[in-house]
Amino acid sequence: MSILAAAGLIAVGLALLAAGGELLVRGGATIAKLARVTPAVIGLTIVAMGTSLPEMAVTFFARLSGRPEVAMGNIIGSNIFNIAAILGLASMFIVLRVHGNAVKLEWPFMFISSALALLLARDGRIDRLEGGFFVVSLVLFTVYCVHVARNEVRGKEAEAIKEEIEALTTSVRKDGGIAFNIGLVVGGIVALVLGARFLVDGAVTVAVIAGMSERVIGLTIVAAGTGLPELATSVVAALRKQTEIAVANVMGSNIFNILGTVGLVSLIEPTEVSPALVNVDMWWMMAFSLAVLPMMYTGRRIVRTEGALLLAGYAVYLWILIENNA
Fold first, then answer.
1. How confident is the model over 267-299, as pLDDT tens digits?
2. What is d(CA 176, CA 159) in angstroms, rounded to the nearest whole number?
3. What is the dotted CATH code of the domain comprising 3-324?
4. N or C end of the chain, less CB within 10 A?
5. pTM
C-alpha cells in the first residue's frame, strides 16, 4: 500500500469516527430525553462520554488486532492532546471560565485515574482485575455525576448544558420516534467500527513506510485524530461562550479514556504497556494534568497566556517524541 493510499484510509477513518460518534451521541441523547432524563444528567453522562467514543473504538480495534502500542499510545496521547492542545487552542479564542465542579470533582478524578494508570502499568501490563477496578470506578463516578447533576448543577452551568442538549436533540421535534434514534445509535456504532479499522490500518502503514514506531504513531496521528471531536466540541463551546462546557468536556474525556476504555479493553484481554509509555509518556500526561490545576484554580479561568504555555509544552513534547522516535 502506498503512503497516499494509507493517508486516504486515515482520512476516511477519521471522518467515519467523527460521524459515528455524532450519530451515537445524538441518538442516545434523544432517547434519554424522550425517557424524560434531565438535560444536566444527559450532559454529564451521555454527551460527556460520547466525545471519547472514537478513542474507545480505535483502542479496541488496535488491541484486538495485536497493536498494543497503538492502543495505549492512543489513550495516553489523547489525554495529553486534550489538555495541552484543546484547552490551549480554545483559550486562544476566549477566556475559559471554570465552574466549581471542574476543580472539586472532575480534575481530582482525572488526576487520580491517571496516577492509578501509571501505578498499575509499571509491571508492563494492565490485567483483567485492574481493568475491572477501572470499570467499577467509572460506574461509581457516573453515579456520583448523576447525583451532582440532579442536585448541584444550577444557574449558568445548567443553562449552558440545556442549550447543548437542545442542539443535539432537534430530531425529537422532527420525528418524535424511538425507532429513528435507535437507527442513529446503530449507524453510529457501525461507522465507529469501520472508522477504527481504517484509521488503525492506515496509521500502521504510515508508520512502516516512514520508519516510525507504532508508539509514536499512536501518540501523534492516531491520538490527535481521535481527539478531533473534543477539539471541535470545545472550540465551538468556547465561541458560544459556553466555556464551562469546553473545560468539562476535556476533563470528562480524560476520565473516560482511562477508566472506561482502558478498563473495558483490559477486562476483555490484559493490555501490555511498553516501558517507553510508562517511563516517558505517562509522566508527560501526569505533568500536563498537574500543570492545568493552578490555571483553573487561580481566578477560576484559563487565559490566553496560560493557553499559550500549554501549547508550547505540547510542541516541546512532540519535538522530543519525534526526535527520539522510539
1. 988 999 999 999 999 999 999 999 999 988 777
2. 23
3. 1.20.1420.30
4. C
5. 0.84
